[in-house]
Design a protein that fits this description.
single chain, about 170 residues, mainly alpha, 7 helices, flat
């Protein structure tokens, strides 16, 4: 495949990201004081998308012939992929009921095991550190209201927030 044909899709990604970024101008009209406005996260994601696509443009343009690894998805195990997709869907479905903190800890642990982590200490530490880091980032720093769960799960989440001094 010619180098030009390999850069068309990532170049389209850069163009789409730039166009969508321009469309986020009015999102911060409702921002208060020093808080991040509602346009911050969409812009951050679009900048990341644009940069990733630009890097892919450069990589594909510089590559004379595609490597064997980039040619196909022969190394992808479809069963593992299906389980990963099911885990993501389950995560989204359970978060409102069980709360962000509990579902995230379980999701990170399960995904680490699926990805090949075998040490229970590593999996546990990764799940706890990842969850606590995300909680501090989203709740304390960004003021993003995350699902706390229903009933007893809400009580557990609020106790965790107080224990971590998030609020």
């Amino acid at each position: 495949m010619p180098a030009l044909a390999r850069v068309v899709a990532p170049l389209a990604g850069v163009i789409v990201a730039a166009a969508l970024f321009a469309g986020t101008r009015g999102l911060d009209d409702v921002a208060r004081g020093e808080q991040l406005g509602p346009g911050f996260w969409p812009r951050l994601v679009l900048v990341g998308l644009g940069l990733a696509c630009a890097a892919k443009v450069v990589e594909n343009f510089r590559r004379i012939t595609p490597s064997d690894r980039a040619v196909g998805l022969a190394g992808v195990r479809r069963g593992t992929l299906a389980v990963a997709i099911a885990m993501i869907v389950l995560y989204v479905a359970l978060a409102p009921w069980l709360g962000f903190a509990l579902v995230t800890a379980g999701f990170i642990a399960a995904f680490m095991v699926l990805a090949g982590a075998r040490s229970p200490a590593t999996v546990g530490l990764g799940a706890v550190a990842g969850t606590v880091g995300l909680l501090y980032f989203f709740v304390k720093l960004v003021y993003l209201p995350l699902p706390k769960g229903d009933g007893v799960f809400e009580t557990v989440t609020l106790a965790l927030y107080r224990g971590l001094r998030i609020f």
